[in-house]
Structures are given as C-alpha cells and as structure tokens.
Write a structure and sequence with these properties.
Layout (H helix, E strand, L loop, with lengths): L1 E8 L15 E4 L2 E3 L3 E6 L2 E3 L20 E8 L5 H13 L9 E7 L4 E8 L2 H12 L5 H6 L5 H17 L6 E8 L7 H4 L7 H18 L1 E7 L24 H7 L8 E4 L12 E4 L7 H23 L12 H8 L3 E6 L8 E8 L7 E3 L3 E4 L2 H15 L9 E4 L3 E2 L4 E11 L6 E3 L2 E14 L9 E8 L8 E11 L3 E8 L6 E8 L14
Parallel strand pairs: 6-7, 6-9, 9-10
Antiparallel strand pairs: 1-13, 1-15, 2-3, 2-14, 4-5, 4-13, 7-8, 11-12, 14-16, 17-19, 18-19, 19-23, 20-21, 21-22, 21-24, 24-25
Length: 527
C-alpha cells in the first residue's frame, strides 16, 4: 500500500472539509488508479465516511483521535548554537499545543553519529528533557561560517543521516512529520557562483532526493526549519522580491554593493508560495557574477530557502522560513490536523523506478490540493544498502548481529592507503539453501561500508556470494567468504552485512578497522 495525505484548500488557504473518496481522482504516472482506503481527519479526529465502497484506513477508528508523530532532527554539524537553541526553546514552549495522542522523537547528528535523545513518547517531561539535552550539545556552524560556506560533502553527510533517521523511525501509527532543523543546506556549488533564471534542480535532486524518496516511501512529510530566521531577501536578484515592479541592475546598484557587477540577458521570475501567496515580479539576471562575500552570503541564504521549499513541496509538507522558525511546532500541528488520508494499491515491481502521484478534484474548480509528488518502487537490494549505510550513523547493526569478521595484517595499497584482508564467517543456520540439480544452492549479497572519524563514508558495493554444496548443511556449519578492504590510512568504523534474497534475512557485523587492526570479533574487540 501507498499512503497519501492530501490537504485541500480554497484560494484563500481555508481548509475544505466534508469531501468523500468519490470527489477525488488519483493518478499514478498519469494513469487513474482506484482509491482503496479513505479517511477524513478533521482537527485530529477520524470522521466517518458515507462512501461504503471504499474502506477506512487501517488502524484508524471512526470518531477517534488520530495522533501525529513529530520527528525532530537536529543537524548540529551545520547549526549555529545561538540559532539552534532559540528554535529548540520555542519548540519546548509549544509542546502544550500537542494533543494527548501526539508523540515526539528527538535525534541529533554531530557529523558522524545520530544520537537518539528520546524515542517516540507523548510524555512532555521526557520531550522537554530531550530538548534541554539537545541545547547542551556542541554545534559546528560557527566553524562552517569561518570556512566560508558549506561543502557539498558536508551537506551530503547530513542528508544521509536524515535519510537513515526517517527510515529508522518509520514504524509509527498515524501521521508522520519530520521537523528538520537545518542551516546551510543549499544547492550544489555551481549554483552558488552562477545564478540562473531557472535553478539547476537536476543537481539539487541528486543531492537531496535520497531523503525525499525515503520520506515518501515511509510516509513522512518534511517540514524543514531554517534556523537563522529572518534575512534580507536580496538573493542575487535585481531587487527584493516584494518591490513588485521589474528593474534592471544599474551602475548605482553596483556602487551601492561596492563592486562592479557583470550581467547578461534578463528574464522575468515569479514565485508562488506554498500557502498560495504570490510575491511581486522581479527581473533576475540569467548570469550574474558575485562581487562581494556579503552578497555571496545572501545568494547562499536564498539558495538554501529554495532547497527547503523543494524538500517540503516534494513530500507534502511546508517550509518553515523566516519568522516561522519561532512557530514551527504550532504551524506544523495546525497544518497536519485536518487532511484527507488516501491509500492505494500500487503495482510493485521493486525495480527502483520513480512513479509520479497526482491527486485531482474533478468538478470542483477553485480548490487547491497539496500532497506528496511521487513514490519510489524501491527494490529489496537497494533497501538493504540503505539499512547498512544507515547503521553507520546510528552506530548499530542491521538485522541479526551473527556474522564473525576477522581481519588480517594491513599492507600498503598506494599513497596514504592500506589494504586489509577480511574473512567473514556466515552461519548457514541463518540462511536458506535450496536443492537444485543435486546440489544445495543460494546466492547471497555481501556489503561492507566504512566511515572515518570525520564522518566521511565509503561507497557500498554489492558482491555476489554463490554457495553450493553436495549435501544439506548440518547444524553449526559456516561458509567463509574472503575479500579485502582498501581504505585511507586511518581508523574507521565498519558495518558488514550479508543479505539472503530467499528468506529476506540480513546478517551483520560491526566494529573498528584501521592501520592497527589485527584479527577482530564482530563487535570490534581485538583477539
């Protein structure tokens, strides 16, 4: 099943209530699909439906409260402490706005690990304690500002951590919302030096789509919070967006900014906000040289706003920009208490293809619909890779922690690199072998990925391990797989996993490996 939460408003942004499943049309890749489940949630309560042909959403009881789950993800790697703590304090103050059925989980990312400050809970005391603990943590934003800007690799770490987090907290009944406390999440470096009439969404998607796809797959709506709050809206355009009339850059503008501009042909730009506001028209250069660090900072900030809008728009959430950072929990609660919950049976090929979702209201002109844009038909192999990579940032192991990994003596493998032999013992009691052509066979998938003390992560290649024997395995039998890991000459944490496609089982091991590595047990303790 694919769940789709739908917000319906009129042109003034007022919520429309009382619609039935028959009022909606659902299209996947432009083809209509029947709606299998339907429930209207009005002010946090599931309403009875008059349409007997469509079942109610499972686990939702008519006239009973429907809780919302708020996952608070704090990116300490990029946050400036002053801005982060202000937002955390406002979140704590607004806990009184939550309903008894609502729950909150709080996690924080320091650049390498994701720390669970509290799991799902509706205890205000536990949530307050977790937010207070979050304010005591370090924040890396000042160092980032001194280095002038955020490298794409650093943002990628935070996005990967957020991706692993929404997947790890996916099992929760009711509506799921992720409040992302961010600073410096912007479009890739090319967009920071050349501002174009149309943003290069291809680059942006490659960086942020893992988070979007994971959120859509497990049913999270993203509500990204821009920690710094209000900023000047210059944003590399010829005039602030609210000025209303088109202008071109003049020599006076150039002298005001203190340095010459270089411009080329211009084009009109209009932006329609998610809430339905239309901001004024401005003339934006298609190509613009950034003359001063100050203006480059403004470009980067508006650039970050576009990213937060992208994350929210793709998942059916809202971006919390400027003054909304101080009302983030209240606005998210208000936005997620009244909506329509649709479910449909999607054709699943598990081929990692993206499918577009569109919800329409035929015959009801003037109404607006907001929902997630797509879902990813993810394969089990890709899902296992994501679980293995996510285990790195949570410092745990996916599946059953039963593999035994032994490492040999490292040897030099190039400039500042070493090669470490690894021997993995796979207990055959935990995998399935089938008799085929007189032999017992299976083909397992092996993955291993590394992360160093700076949070830099390796790729996660997939190796096929063919197993075949002349007899059925006896209790206690193991299969030994040998390979080598090439890494930088420094200490790493590793997660190794074996996936059995026949049974769906995941077997894993984790620990530390590096130049001083000898032979290790699965938990990393040297023998």
């Amino acid at each position: 099943m694919v769940n789709v939460e739908v917000v319906v408003t009129d042109r003034r942004g007022n919520r429309i209530r009382g619609l039935e499943a028959s009022d909606f049309e659902l299209l996947v890749d432009r083809e209509p699909l029947p709606i299998s489940y339907f429930t209207e949630v009005d002010e946090g309560v599931a309403r009875s439906s008059l349409d007997d042909d469509v079942a109610r959403v499972p686990s939702v009881v008519a006239d009973e409260p429907v809780g919302t789950n708020y996952l608070i993800f704090i990116d300490d790697l990029h946050a400036v402490r002053q801005h982060r703590d202000r937002v955390l304090s406002r979140l704590e103050q607004d806990l009184v706005l939550l309903n008894p059925a609502d729950r909150v989980a709080v996690v924080a990312f320091d650049g390498r690990n994701v720390s669970r400050l509290t799991d799902w809970t509706n205890s205000r005391q536990e949530i307050s304690e977790a937010l207070a603990l979050a304010r005591q943590r370090g924040a890396g934003g000042r160092a980032r500002l001194r280095n002038w800007g955020t490298q794409e690799n650093q943002v990628r770490k935070a996005v990967m951590a957020a991706t692993a987090t929404v997947r790890a907290f996916a099992v929760a009944p009711g509506r799921k919302v992720a409040l992302l406390l961010t600073d410096g999440w912007s479009q890739p470096a090319r967009a920071l030096t050349i501002m174009e009439a149309a943003p290069p969404w291809g680059d942006t998607e490659s960086l942020y789509n893992p988070l979007v796809h994971a959120a859509n797959q497990v049913g999270f709506s993203l509500y990204p919070i821009d920690l710094p709050g209000f900023r000047d809206m210059v944003a590399c355009s010829s005039a602030p967006l609210w000025w209303g009339s088109p202008r071109t850059i003049s020599s006076a503008d150039a002298s005001w900014w203190g340095s010459p501009w270089t411009t080329s042909s211009t084009g009109d730009s209009r932006y329609n906000d998610d809430r339905g506001w239309t901001l004024g028209t401005s003339t934006r250069p298609r190509s613009l040289a950034i003359p001063t660090p100050s203006l480059q900072g403004w470009c980067r900030r508006e650039n970050g706003h576009e990213v937060l809008r992208f994350l929210a728009r793709q998942t059916g959430g809202l971006p919390m920009l400027d003054g909304s950072r101080d009302r983030a929990l209240g606005e998210a609660a208000e936005d997620t208490r009244t909506y329509y919950w649709l479910g449909f049976e999607a054709p699943r090929d598990q081929n990692d293809e993206l499918h577009n979702i569109k919800v329409r209201l035929p015959g009801r002109r003037g109404l607006r619909v907001r929902t997630r844009k797509h879902f990813l038909d993810i394969s089990r192999s890709t899902e296992v890779t994501m679980l293995v990579e996510g285990a790195l940032v949570f410092d745990d192991s996916p599946g059953k922690d039963v593999l035994e990994a032994r490492f040999g003596t490292p040897r030099k493998a190039g400039f500042r690199k070493i090669s470490v032999p690894i021997e993995v013992s796979i207990p055959l009691d935990d995998v399935q072998l089938l008799p085929m052509d007189g032999r017992w066979r299976n083909e397992l998938e092996f993955r291993v990925t590394l992360i160093d003390e700076h949070g830099d992560r390796s790729e996660t290649p997939v190796d096929k391990i063919p197993i075949h024997g002349s007899r059925a395995p006896s209790p206690g039998d193991t299969f030994v797989y040998e390979t080598e890991l090439v890494m930088r000459r420094r200490e790493h944490r590793y997660v190794a996993a074996v996936y059995d496609p026949l049974s769906g089982a995941i077997l894993s091991a984790s620990g530390d490996v590096g130049p001083a590595t000898g032979t290790e047990t699965p938990n990393g303790d040297a023998k």
